[in-house]
Amino acid sequence: MAAVPLLLAGCGAEPEAATPEPRPVRAVTVEKREAGTPITLTGRIEADDEAILGFRIAGRVLENSVSRGQRVVAGQVLVRLESQNEMNALRVAQAGLATAQAQLTQARNHYERQETLIGQGWTTRAIYDQAEKARRTAEQAVEAAEAELKAAHDLVGFTELKADAPGTVTDAGPGAGEVVQAGQAIVRLARKDGRDAVFDVPANVLRTVPGDPEISVFLTEAPTVTAMGRVREVAPQADPVMRTFEVKVGLTDPPEAMRLGATVTGRVTMASGAIIEIPASALTRSEQQPAVWIVDPETRTVSMRNVDVLRFEPATVTISQGLDTGEVVVTAGVQALHPGQEVRLLGSSP
């Protein structure tokens, strides 16, 4: 009978909990490497001082005598508008001035006679005052006519678009017969011999390039044609479509072969020094800060550690603080881990 209680007790016993299997993960061993990878971008040659010229009045283009790439001198006529209306207005203003001048001559002669007569007592003060008023009115009429004539001359001059400085035409604009508006871009003029290499640079590249770097620029189709330069201007706002920043590199003594509009390649080396890079998949977050899982080589357990990220790349991240050489960082399976969990590194024995 004693065997029965023992049998019943044995049936009610709970089995021992099974030990969880280590979770398989992939990991890398942290190493430092020397930076200094060159960055290469493609750009174009532009003038460092470029102006857009346009007419002050609207009209129809009569003649466009310039072409792209043409060198011009200061004061050279580039484009003409039809000027019949302006010439007619000029002739009207000239006739108006001639009439005003004739009236002034008549008023002055009458005033001088009245001035003589009043001195001799042969006229009244009222007649003299009227003659003086007529003279002043005629003088003011001449001044107004002269102003109208000057304005008419200016309008005629506005029918000619002239180069304001010596330079090279980079865009010739509308041709003969086209109607243009006041202020419309007609000619683009590079006003100096200085040239820039212009690049569209992503934001992450701007962050990694050292301050005031020396940039090597060469013609894309002729790499032996080279020049050196430094950053002269960085656009304050990104392009709304490409999300890149326009960077202008002022070139020092560029060769003649680097003509305006030519395609060039620029190369700059990133700041040197030892850096730590890990795969981007290793990065997670803890307390709203970047973090990684560290594997203890003795216990094969993991713990989370916050790190400081210097820069992000599509496949890697550069760590500035938080990791040291020789540490093991989990790169795959980071979302399924918890502190103290035992892991098995894939590719190693269990």
TrEMBL record:
<keyword id="KW-0175">Coiled coil</keyword>
<protein>
    <submittedName>
        <fullName>RND transporter</fullName>
    </submittedName>
</protein>
<dbReference type="Pfam" id="PF25954">
    <property type="entry name" value="Beta-barrel_RND_2"/>
</dbReference>
<dbReference type="Pfam" id="PF25876">
    <property type="entry name" value="HH_MFP_RND"/>
</dbReference>
<feature type="domain" description="CusB-like beta-barrel">
    <location>
        <begin position="199"/>
        <end position="269"/>
    </location>
</feature>
<dbReference type="InterPro" id="IPR006143">
    <property type="entry name" value="RND_pump_MFP"/>
</dbReference>
<feature type="domain" description="Multidrug resistance protein MdtA-like alpha-helical hairpin">
    <location>
        <begin position="90"/>
        <end position="152"/>
    </location>
</feature>
<dbReference type="Pfam" id="PF25967">
    <property type="entry name" value="RND-MFP_C"/>
</dbReference>
<comment type="similarity">
    <text>Belongs to the membrane fusion protein (MFP) (TC 8.A.1) family.</text>
</comment>
<dbReference type="InterPro" id="IPR058792">
    <property type="entry name" value="Beta-barrel_RND_2"/>
</dbReference>
<dbReference type="InterPro" id="IPR058624">
    <property type="entry name" value="MdtA-like_HH"/>
</dbReference>
<dbReference type="GO" id="GO:1990281">
    <property type="term" value="C:efflux pump complex"/>
</dbReference>
<dbReference type="InterPro" id="IPR058627">
    <property type="entry name" value="MdtA-like_C"/>
</dbReference>
<dbReference type="GO" id="GO:0015562">
    <property type="term" value="F:efflux transmembrane transporter activity"/>
</dbReference>
<feature type="domain" description="Multidrug resistance protein MdtA-like C-terminal permuted SH3">
    <location>
        <begin position="276"/>
        <end position="335"/>
    </location>
</feature>
<feature type="coiled-coil region">
    <location>
        <begin position="97"/>
        <end position="155"/>
    </location>
</feature>
